[in-house]
Design brief:
This protein is mainly alpha-helical. It has eight helices and two strands. The termini are close together.
Length: 179
């Protein structure tokens, strides 16, 4: 953003006016409310973040089964394209697709403190979400082979992590562009 000389002078004049203005103390209850909001935004609860991720995963993961079946559940045809790459690559891509959709959507709605918590925990909630998803698949009667489940979980973790970071980065770019 380039400023011409006139805009710079106007900005400096406004800033000087701001510096010379009388100090106004906001009402105490408003200050406390704002401080609480900032504190809540910066100190996220692990369970709160996990529940947000789980909500997005439940909705979008269920919808993803229409595009890409997981362990025989769902009717998607994307798995056929992945299967051409071999069993392990297919499972890794299916896991990445399944967990990636939910975390991509969640990344747009998670707050900065919640993303920071995910990073501080080594993205453990994403891994936990993958394990919970495998449990749900098993509960619905999916035939799960341990070695393929491990590959699916690894692909899902990496896909979820990448999707979360890409979504957060895209959100940050959108915010910067709107300023």
């Amino acid at each position: 953003m380039k400023w011409d000389l006139r805009e710079q002078k106007e900005w400096l004049k406004d800033f000087q006016s701001f510096l010379e203005a009388d100090e106004i103390t906001p009402p105490r209850d408003l200050s406390e409310k704002i401080l609480k909001m900032v504190h809540d935004d910066l100190t996220a609860s692990s369970w709160h973040v996990l529940s947000k991720l789980a909500l997005f995963q439940a909705v979008l993961g269920s919808l993803s089964l229409m595009i890409c079946s997981q362990f025989g559940l769902g009717s998607g045809t994307l798995v056929m394209a992945f299967a051409r790459l071999g069993d392990n690559m297919c499972m890794a891509l299916c896991g990445a697709f399944f967990l990636g959709l939910g975390t991509l959507a969640a990344s747009y709605f998670l707050k900065e403190g919640e993303i920071r918590l995910l990073r501080q925990t080594g993205y453990l909630p994403i891994l936990l979400l993958g394990i919970l998803s495998l449990g749900v698949f098993f509960g619905f009667g999916a035939e799960i082979v341990a070695s393929l489940a491990f590959v699916w979980l690894l692909g899902g973790f990496i896909g979820g992590l990448v999707a979360l970071e890409v979504g957060w980065y895209a959100k940050a770019l959108q915010i910067r562009r709107s300023d």
